[in-house]
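FORM 7B - TANDEM STRUCTURE REPORT

SECTION 1: FIRST PROTEIN
SEQUENCE AND TOKENS:
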Amino acid sequence: MGPSDRVRRAHWGDFEGLNLAGLVRLSFELGRDDPSANVRRLPLTGKDIKGREEQEKDCRAYVESRRGTYIHTYMEPDTSAWKRKRVQLPDGSYAYRVVRPIFEGALEDLKRGTTPNGDRLDGLIVYDIDRLTRDNRHLEDAIEVVEHFGRPIMDITGTLDLLTDNGRTVARIVVATNNKQSADTARRVRRKHRALELAGIPTGGRRPFGWHADKRTLNPAEAEVIRETAQRILQGAPLSAIVNDWNDRGILTPLGNKWTNQTVKTVFRNPRICGYRSRNVREINPQTGTESFRVEIVRDDAGEPVIGQFEAILSVDEWDAVTAVIGNHAIAGRGKNTRTYLLTGTLRCGKDDCGCKLRALKAHASRVKDPNRFYYTCEAKNKGGCGGGVSIPGQETDAWVTAAVIRKYEMEAQRREAQTTPEPWPQEGELAEVREDLRELSAARKERRISANRYFAMLPELEQQERELLADRERWLAKTATAGTSLATIRDDWDGYPLAQKRAYIEEALAAVIVHPSNGRRGFHPERIELVWREA
């Protein structure tokens, strides 16, 4: 049987001798809030058919009633025939496409003329055009199969006709109309979610850590863990120590998993812990094409944060301080730290034309009584150092530098206690001006005082200024947040800190520690050490 014979016989409704497969798709294209969604209409349309088994039964009966053979069913899961996803094209670029692997596989099988089981395949049957596609690109792929490969694609309701020129033209119009209906539904859903955001109402998804399943009332035990950990972060505790502590205590994520650095950061970066309504935002790097997600504060039309209809765990000031420490990227010395000596990475060789980092070297057991004895020494020449030309006893150096750092922090704590008000961020006024400009620009557009072209031309520059100022404020708060908590007691607390936390304090205070040559003197001499403090 030739290709034209298959199409002609399908057009006449004579399926005798044809092996046909069915394509059934579970879909929720019609919103549940649509008043017509709960009204059962007769006869049924593709929008009403939700069950794949019911679609398969009707397709099989339709084929067999016309003396055809029903040989296979292509089962699609809850797959949208309209919503586009970001995909990478063969040339490495990115585009947005409707992704339906089962549908695309069915078209490839039609081109080959065989099912996945190896049976001969002559055509495809669907319940109606809505089950086939809502995307014009996919419709053209289906038309190609009919026109150029002679494999008929039909429906059982009579709304789909890809077998004639007029039918294909009508199909293009119907798919375009269905596509618009899906776009209208998506727009209504976005509007609804925006209204929920502005009202501060929490929406679906799994429960956030710190709250009960209603997403409104606090889980007392988890909320207390968050408050306690927030203070530890402000005191300089490294994130890895917090993660280990939570896992050792048997604290689990809302999904019942163990914690990681990233999941702990997600908890503390979420504005909801201070009472603000938040939302997830997708961002795409224009250079690399990579996709990332972040959580941001929902703001009203005046640019003010929206207060959520749920209990807060931290105050706004506490949350600002914590996020200033955590930031968008790991701060040096606060993440995972595998170093086992206090000052490696901070000590530098003071020999002329060197400046290499010093490494720790265990003393030979036969030459010292203390098995823990070690030295800091310059790297070998093949690693960029001066070949051990500068060396200094490790334990004495650790103690001397530690004492200097503790004294520095104590002086800073005394200075802060003497201030009657916290030191403000110097560019707060500039940020307020930029936000006012954004509000005025938005108002001008709403009142039609400026064109859309001008609005969108001016908007990116102001938004970039706002992002840069907010990043600068984060850096400013990061410098002041740690010192403003418990530095007055750092001397008493020091011995109880883990090594990574001690390193964090030292690296926050010191840009480098330069060790000058001994000039023939043995032992530890503090005058060889030069401290390079970080600028405030």
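SECTION 2: SECOND PROTEIN
SEQUENCE AND TOKENS:
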Amino acid sequence: MKAIKHFRTITKHKYYVMKLCFRFGLYKQGLKHDLSKYSWCEFSTGAKYYLGYKSPNSNERDQIGYSSAWLHHKGRNKHHWEYWIDFTSKGIITIEMPIKYVVEMFCDRVAATMVYQGDNFDFTAPLDYYNKTRFYYIINEKTDYIIKDMLTHLANTNLDETVEYIKRTYLSK
């Protein structure tokens, strides 16, 4: 039963992200978003640790100290800031994310919050979650600024206005 519930959750999330990506003209990203979640490695772990109100990756991390599904996922999905970290002789470096992936990250965060909060969703929730978890991120400074700007605009207005703002400010260049 948890496998069916997990399937419904990730599919609903994928659908929401796809709809948002399409509003930005990011059709290929919308269609391909999070396909790795359907791989056995990620899906079986997601079903095992499924709770329904938060990511199974968080639950797995709470239970065993890390998330095997997340380690698989982040290396295959460019809309995650973790994908853009590298190691050099000077240590860890962060790479600025191409704007199309920052926009997909915005869509991902909004959709995830919509799915997990359901009827309790409001436009401040994605920014609240970002700010709650931001302190441990190793994210490029410019990427951080841009995603915070997008989420802050959403928190202060609504989705329609924010979509237009992002198109005008970040995608028309």
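SECTION 3: OBSERVATIONS ON SECOND PROTEIN
The radius of gyration is 16 Å.
Residues 20 and 136 are 27 Å apart (CA to CA).

SECTION 4: SIGNATURE
Preparer initials: ____
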